[in-house]
Every structure is written in structure tokens, then in C-alpha cells.
Write a structure and sequence with these properties.
This protein is an alpha/beta fold and 154 residues long. The protein has one domain: Rossmann fold. Helix content is 45%, strand content 17%. It has a six-stranded mixed beta sheet with strand order 1-3-2-4-5-6, sandwiched between helices. α4 links the parallel β5 and β6. α2 runs parallel beside α3 and α3 packs across α4. The longest helix is centred in the first third of the chain and has 24 residues. It is globular.
Length: 154
């Protein structure tokens, strides 16, 4: 269930965080899962440090069913923007599915780590979004880097 993770007493932008992961069980269990899950927590912690009302999930979205459930909950929470986190390789169509169904301004982000294949996931998902004409912001940097807050909180 999407739960707010910041103080709701101040008017802050309502941001949804979805972290996407590889849908292949053998790759998830053997490689990407142990890298993705800690980075998902890192993303949530970073976004909590900003002046936003964050709606997040404990689990990484890896399937159409995961995406549909999380999008439904983010719609119910009336989020105003989506932070689509691709810390490792992810199947681009699950990111596109989420972004299209949520239909709010979107940031697609990954870190600079070459070990995770996150850049490939970001470029594949963001490229697919460009192909369908969905405007979005791409950020490839580490949390806390000046560009992160500049791009996320203009």
C-alpha cells in the first residue's frame, strides 16, 4: 500500500516513487535483486529529505501486475508527479506502462554506477517514452548530487 512518508502538515508536492526491476526471476534472484532493493531504499530516503510528500512502496515493481497495483494506489493518493527509479536493468515496457497509466510529470533516474546496468535501463525506458511522445526528465547521477535537487525541485 502506498503510504505517505513525510509530514502532511505543510503543503508539499505529492510525489510517487516507483522503483522498477527485472521481471526475470533467475536474473532478479541471482543478480539484480540484491543490487536494486538497497538502491530503492536509498531513493526513498533521498526523496524524504526533499520538501515533498512522498508516496512509496516496500516492493520493487517487476511485473505488469505490480505496476498496475502501484499506479492505482498512486492515483488514489493523487500524486502530482512520478519519480521512476531504474537503479538496475529493467524491462522498459513496465516503466512505460506505469508512466502512461499514471499520466503525471515524470522524472526517470538512475545512478552513475556502471555495475548495475541502470544506465541501460534508463536509456531504454526513457527512449521508449520519447518514442511515444511522453515528455519527461532524465537524470543520471547519484543521490545528493547538485543536479538531482536542481532537476527535481526547480
Amino acid at each position: 500500500m502506498a503510504v505517505p512518508v513525510t509530514d502532511q502538515t505543510m503543503a508539499r508536492p505529492r510525489i510517487g516513487l516507483m522503483t522498477f526491476g527485472d521481471d526475470r526471476d533467475y536474473m532478479w534472484d541471482g543478480y539484480f535483486g540484491p543490487m536494486t532493493e538497497p538502491r530503492h531504499e536509498e531513493a526513498a530516503n533521498y526523496l524524504r529529505s526533499l520538501q515533498v510528500e512522498l508516496f512509496s512502496f516496500a516492493e520493487v515493481a517487476r511485473s505488469k501486475e505490480d505496476v498496475d497495483r502501484q499506479v492505482r494506489e498512486l492515483k488514489e493518493a493523487q500524486v502530482e508527479a512520478l519519480f521512476a527509479h531504474t537503479p538496475c536493468w529493467t524491462t522498459p515496457n513496465v516503466v512505460v506502462r506505469a508512466v502512461q497509466h499514471l499520466d503525471v510529470p515524470t522524472v526517470v533516474m538512475t545512478s552513475k554506477s556502471a555495475a548495475t546496468h541502470g544506465t541501460v535501463g534508463l536509456l531504454a525506458a526513457a527512449g521508449a517514452l520519447s518514442q511515444i511522445g511522453f515528455d519527461h526528465v532524465r537524470v543520471r547521477d547519484d543521490f545528493g548530487a547538485p543536479i538531482c535537487e536542481a532537476e527535481l525541485m526547480p
